[in-house]
Design a protein that fits this description.
The chain is built from 26 helices and 13 strands. It is extended. α9 runs parallel beside α11, α22 packs antiparallel against α23 and α25 packs across α26. A hairpin with a 2-residue loop joins β10 and β11. It has a five-stranded parallel beta sheet, with helices on one face. Strands 9-8-13 form a three-stranded antiparallel beta sheet. Strands 10-11-12 form a three-stranded mixed beta sheet, covered by helices on one side. The chain has about 550 residues and is of the alpha/beta class. It folds into four domains: about 170 residues, 3-Layer(aba) Sandwich (Rossmann fold), CATH 3.40.50.300; about 60 residues, Helicase, Ruva Protein, domain 3 (Orthogonal Bundle); about 110 residues, Zinc Finger, Delta Prime, domain 3, CATH 1.20.272; about 170 residues, 2-Layer Sandwich (GMP Synthetase, Chain A, domain 3).
């Protein structure tokens, strides 16, 4: 007997041997036990997830002479004939090469004949999405109302390509990607039965490379034992597949984050000169950057030695989470560019140089500056800059100018209104920018705020706030008290986010600093906006710049 590939040799022959699809195998076994087997099934899922194996097991189980709890016995005449391919009542058809109308018409003629030995004639159509439109149309009626002795099992990786009329006639089962844990368990069984010595690290790498496909995992394992040595370790797999060593990947990523072009290209050349594949190198770089991000977030990593974790800890100290996220996206874009390029090496090296550009290094301090500003905002040390029409050269003057003590809050209202009018008229009139400190007493100016609402056309807001008064709750919050209570309609209007922002903006302009608002009534109350949200809201909605007072 000739050599049999591992994925064929260790193909599951019972539902219990199918890895990672318990939700499907359990349902199928229950249907068989209860005698409720459907006439048409659709098995959908990625490659190597067990679709074809499940179809073959199901075909044997419903025809088995001695079924055991929904499982085929694999010992009776029917089961043995199905396994060795001598049973003509189970027909396997590849739709990729048999996709014409004539192929389906031959099936329609065959279904009228009774099975020769088995109870049911079963048609397993693999890659069914490859059938032509005419073939699908020819299959429709037969699939909908087949003879009682006929069962259909369709398998596909792309169910979206199937007509809705086909989908509606089948019981659909979606096969999941097999987890790395389940792949490793299966690899252990295969290696023990085959006399293969393999390290835990090697199995982890195979599981990752398989990407949820058990068949791919067994194929990689088989490639590793073709040299005649049944000993597999991490280095052997990486050399065979073309994956660069983790040290080289670490050095490249480290050089990228240090914006060191020379060392980056030097390490890249070392990897490429060893014959490693560029796609595998990029894949390892993306994975390594992702692991850096995971370690920075959780301080936990699997699949790495103590020495490698120490290197990861060292490199992650001076890198922010956002930088790592950006690097993952940039490397992914480069991977996509290389996929469609005929000059992969040139594009890859150009991409490395681009990632090391000096502009990124110069902008690296942006996050720190933002954090510093946020600290000032939380402390409440801000000054509102009146008249946003002028910025430019007067910014430095605004930072150094002290606020006059006799400034009137009413002037702030007028200035804010004037600024709005100026923007609407698109004038270029420039006024001297001043930094001012204001009072938070909104009670005195609440009537004027109501008047401005009316003049600005906010009639609905004005009518619902006409019987209210303002009172200071704390340094950052103004309460709006309803004298006669809040009506149901008024509650609906005033609690709209855009109206809350509008009122808060006008109160903030009157007080000279961001202020939260709080509705006070006998039956309702609007929650306060946080100080930080209020600051951001004030800046975004009112277009009034503010200056940090150091």
């Amino acid at each position: 007997m000739g050599y049999t590939a591992l994925y064929r040799k260790f193909r599951p022959i019972t539902f219990s041997e199918i890895v990672g699809q318990e939700h499907i195998t359990r349902t199928l076994r229950n249907q068989i036990v209860a005698g409720r087997v459907g006439h048409a099934y659709l098995f959908n899922g990625g490659r190597g997830t067990g679709k074809t194996s499940a179809a073959k097991i199901l075909a044997r189980a419903i025809n088995c002479l001695n079924p055991q709890d929904g499982e085929p016995c694999n010992e009776c005449e029917i089961c043995k004939g199905a396994i060795n391919g001598s049973l003509t009542d189970i027909v396997e058809m590849d739709a990729a090469s048999n996709n014409s109308v004539e192929d389906i018409r031959s099936i329609r003629e065959e279904v009228n004949f009774l099975p020769t030995k088995a109870k049911y004639r079963v048609y397993i159509i693999d890659e069914v999405h490859m059938l032509s439109t005419g073939a699908f149309n020819a299959l429709l009626k037969t699939l909908e109302e087949p003879p009682e002795h006929v069962k259909f099992i369709l398998a596909t990786t792309e169910p979206q390509k199937l007509p809705a009329t086909i989908l509606s006639r089948c019981q659909r089962f979606d096969f999941k990607r097999i987890s790395n844990e389940n792949i490793i368990k299966r690899l252990n069984i295969v290696c023990e039965q085959s006399g293969i010595e393999i390290t835990k690290e090697a199995m982890n790498i195979i599981a990752v490379l398989a990407e949820g496909a058990m068949r791919d995992a067994l194929s990689i394992l088989e490639r590793c034992i073709q040299d005649g040595e049944n000993k597999i370790d991490e280095d052997k797999i990486k050399d065979l597949v073309g994956i660069p060593k983790i040290t080289y990947v670490h050095n490249i990523i480290d050089s990228l984050f240090k914006y060191d072009v020379d060392n980056t290209l030097k390490n890249v050349d070392i990897v490429l000169n060893e014959g490693k594949d560029i796609n595998n190198l990029l894949w390892e770089m993306i994975k390594y950057t992702k692991d850096l991000l995971v370690y920075k977030a959780s301080q936990k990593l699997d699949l790495y030695s103590e020495e490698e974790i120490a290197n990861i800890e060292e490199i992650s100290k001076n890198i922010s989470k956002q930088d790592l996220i950006n690097m993952v996206y940039e490397l992914s874009e480069l991977e996509n560019d290389i996929k469609w390029s005929t000059q992969k090496t040139i594009i890859f090296q150009a991409g490395m140089i681009k990632l090391c550009n000096k502009e990124k290094a110069e902008n690296k301090g942006l996050e720190e500056r933002v954090e510093k500003i946020e600290k000032y905002l939380k402390s409440g040390k801000i000054g509102v800059v009146q008249n946003s029409a002028v910025m430019g050269a007067n910014v430095q003057q605004a930072r150094t100018t002290s606020a006059p003590n006799n400034f009137s809050p009413r002037a702030t209202m007028a200035g804010g209104t004037q600024a709005t009018q100026t923007r609407r008229a698109n004038t270029n009139t420039a006024k001297k920018m001043e930094t001012r400190n204001y009072s938070s007493d909104a009670k005195q100016y609440w009537p004027e705020i109501l008047t401005d609402l009316k003049q600005n056309g906010k009639i609905v807001l004005y009518t619902n706030l006409i019987n209210t008064q303002a009172k200071e709750i704390n340094d950052m919050t103004v309460g709006i008290e309803f004298k006669n209570g809040m009506t149901a309609f008024g509650k609906t209007v005033l609690e709209k986010p855009e109206n809350v922002r509008e009122i808060s903006k006008m109160v903030s302009m009157a007080c000279g600093k961001p202020m939260d608002i709080k509705y006070i009534s006998n039956d309702t109350q609007v929650n306060q906006i946080s100080q930080e949200e209020s600051l951001q809201q004030f800046a975004n909605d009112s277009d009034i710049p503010f200056n940090v007072i150091e």
